[in-house]
Amino acid sequence: MIGGKNSLYGPVNPTADAGYSADHPARKGFFTDTSICIGCKACEVACKEWNDVPATHFDMTATSYDNSHSLNANQWRHVAFIEQRKQLGAQDPGMRPPEVTDLPMPTMRPTDTAEAVADQADPTGDPGEKPDFRWLMSSDVCKHCTHAACLDVCPTGSLFRTEFGTVVVQDDICNGCGYCVPACPYGVIDRRKGPDGASNVGIAQKCTLCYDRLTVGETPACAKSCPTQSIQFGDVEELRERASARVAQLHQAGIMDARLYGNDPHDGVGGAGSMFLLLDEPEVYGFPPDPVVTTADLPHMFRRATAAAVTLLAGGALAFVGRRR
Amino acid sequence: MNEDPRDEQQTSAVIGSAGSRRPRRPGGRRRHGPGVESVVPEAEFSSYYGRPIVKPAPWEADIPAYLFTGGLAAGSALIAAGADLTGRRHLRRTGRLGALAALTFSGAALVHDLGKPSRFVNMLRVAKLTSPMSVGTWIITGYAPGAGLAGVAELLDMLPESRRPGLLGGLTRVTAFVDRPAGLWAALFGPPLAAYTAVLLSDTATPSWHAAYRELPFVFVGSAAAASAGLGLLGAPVSETLPVRRLAVGGALLELVAEQRMERSMGITVEPLHEGRAGRLMRASKLLTVAGGLGAALGGRSRVLAGLAGVALMAGSACTRFGVFEAGLASARDPKYTVVPQRERLEREGPVRYEQ
Ligand code: SF4
Ligand code: SF4
Ligand code: SF4
User: Where are the alpha helices (DSSP H) in chain B?
Assistant: First the structure.
């Protein structure tokens, strides 16, 4: 992992960098086009079914219709629901002001809801106008980073790079040290906390990009189950082109909010295996705006630690020099 | 950042409540919990319902306790070797026994964190330079035999002549022969043992740990020197403690100065070091370290004052470790510390781009 000069940072073919010979398969990944996600959560369910991921600890957040919170050891796909007071682009939810009054719209602040309902129920308002309300939905998953911090810091070699360029945990080798958990800049991987009786409690878990399915030429369960093709699976190279084409198409249609995330091999993690088309800033979806793999600074950290160690050694020696008492 | 009033509304709809993950109360405009003092002006930022972006390390008190005892073990081995070479028998004994005890404790803390001993062995299946935890495991594995042997030699040496017949006597003759090389060996592994723990924390996406990566190694080695010198002050007669008085003052100074510089360089991610439990620990650490350093410098010739200074230095070092640890976890729980620094960098330098 200390091979080429881009081993810690920068654009690189992760599979070749990990030492696979030239005839390895093409790098596989996802392009998640959130502009067509309908929030049906078929991907979440399919992932749990196929991979036998235990139920998520039930815990209402009381903030939105999102009942699965975040990616974690028991949630390898997570569909985020974002409610915004913002006009829709080309989408049309079929919601008109009179109906809005009857819908218990969830928001962070009930008082605002009351105001909003009052605003929108204004009888003088033009009924043909679109409401200032939109839902963004986005199915999040492990990014299978080109420079995966989780993999870099794992002390046991439990996390490894597959021949498809993806990142997978071997649950029989992981010792549950939990170091990968704070290392991931996207907060994806986590140590399984329960429920009682589930397999691999205490072991780090995350999306495997359905490694078992890939090895037999199958599509990952989540992508296969997605009814709108919001989750597209394929060769990363080709997905990058598809993503650029789609964002150009949306821009042409006047949806200037559309942007790509994780598609650039020159970004802070060397590009991701999972890229996203977003309709707002990344942090709105719970993504970091501009993540950098932590190991990019590792050489610098190593030098600082060496300097500190030498300081301690010299200080210890100096303390004993000279007078006896 | 954004002039569009609709954006403004949108921001308030999904804005995270900084410092608190509870949904905001009706009509509440407060972004801060009670008693939260902010150094940097309140930052506007968006997040997904205020939920964390990066995950806090799933570690418990074992880990900061390990950071403390690791530092104590490292410095004690160094002191024991110096005392051995300069003929300070009591200081040597304190150092070696301290190193042995601290090593035993940190080993137990590590194994407790992992769940079972076999998992520690599992760590030795690979040596990975990109993993500070792997590197650290190998440093400890190198350090342990030296410190262990020197510590056992010291224990045997403490037994009166009459109590070591036969086998034990033979063993004592062997350990008496290898104790010095073993002690020196451990002393060589001491400094890396004290320094790597800083990299262990910094090499993560935890905002307050990563932002501290330049100075944290110096804070930690200073803290290790202060704590182990404190133990020396506590355990050895004043006639032998001149070196540890110096080391105590030097260590305390290094820790305080490096910590000061660290806080200045961290930007908004310094806040968790000042708030809540971490804030209390860091303030206690500063007070104890100053008191202990002064005590060692001025009152080191009094047995009682030296002992008090020693206790203060050790407690100060423990507070530093727990404080830095807690601050990191707090910074991971609040998306503000992930979003705002990245946004600020984006505005300053544009997106991070790797250039050949
Ligand atoms: S997103 Fe996180 S868990 Fe997934 S590969 Fe990247 S660093 Fe690892
Ligand atoms: S928890 Fe498991 S996968 Fe994660 S770093 Fe530790 S050994 Fe590796
Ligand atoms: S690729 Fe497989 S493991 Fe990953 S989220 Fe989809 S279904 Fe789950």
Answer: 5-14, 62-85, 89-114, 117-123, 132-158, 166-202, 207-210, 216-235, 242-265, 276-298, 303-333, 336-349
Alpha-carbon span B334 to B351, nearest angstrom: 22
Contact call for residues A148 and B127 (beta carbons, < 8 A)? no
pLDDT digits (tens, 9 = 90+) for A281-321: 999 999 999 999 999 999 999 999 999 999 999 999 999 99
What is the pLDDT, as a whole number, of residue A117? 47
Given a contact cutoff of 8 angstroms between Cβ atoms, the answer to whether B186 and B143 are in contact is: yes
Beta bridge partners of A28: A235
- Per CB-CB distance under 8 Å, the chain B contacts of A112 are 13
User: Exposed/middle/buried for B163, CB within 10 Å: 0-12, 13-18, 19+?
Assistant: exposed
Contact check, Cβ <8 Å, B130/A316 = no
Is residue A158 lining ligand 3, measured as CB closer than 6 Å?
Answer: no
Nearest CA of chain B to the CA of A24: how many Å?
Answer: 24
pLDDT tens digit string along B296-346?
999 878 999 999 999 999 999 999 999 999 999 999 999 999 999 999 999
What gap in Å lies between CA B152 and CA A319, rounded to an integer? 25
Could you read off the pLDDT of B215-240 as tens digits, one per residue? 999 999 999 999 999 999 999 999 99
DSSP string, A254-301: T-TT-EEES--TTSTTS-BSEEEEESS-GGGGT--SS---GGGGHHHH
| For residue A122, pLDDT beyond 80 | no
* Cβ–Cβ contact B206 with A under 8 A: yes
Global pTM exceeds 0.95 = no
Ligand 2 atom with minimal separation from the A191 CA: 1
CA torsion A218-A220-A226-A229 (nearest 10°) is -70
Which of left, alpha, beta for B269 (phi over 0: left; psi -120 to 50: alpha)? alpha
The CA radius of gyration of chain B, in Å to the nearest whole number, is 24
pLDDT of residue B205 exceeding 70, the answer is yes
Structure tokens at A85: 């007071």
CB of A156 within 6 A of ligand 2: the answer is yes
Ligand nearest to the CA of residue A191, numbered in listed order? 2
Q: Would the CB atoms of B58 and A10 count as touching at under 8 Å?
A: no
Mean pLDDT for the stretch of residues A237-263: 95
Chain A interface test: which of B14, B88, B231 (most A C-beta within 10 Å):
B14
Q: What residue owns the CA closest to ligand 1's atom 4?
A: A142
Q: Is pLDDT of A115 > 60?
A: no
Compute the count of residue pairs across chains A and B with CB atoms less than 8 Å apart: 293
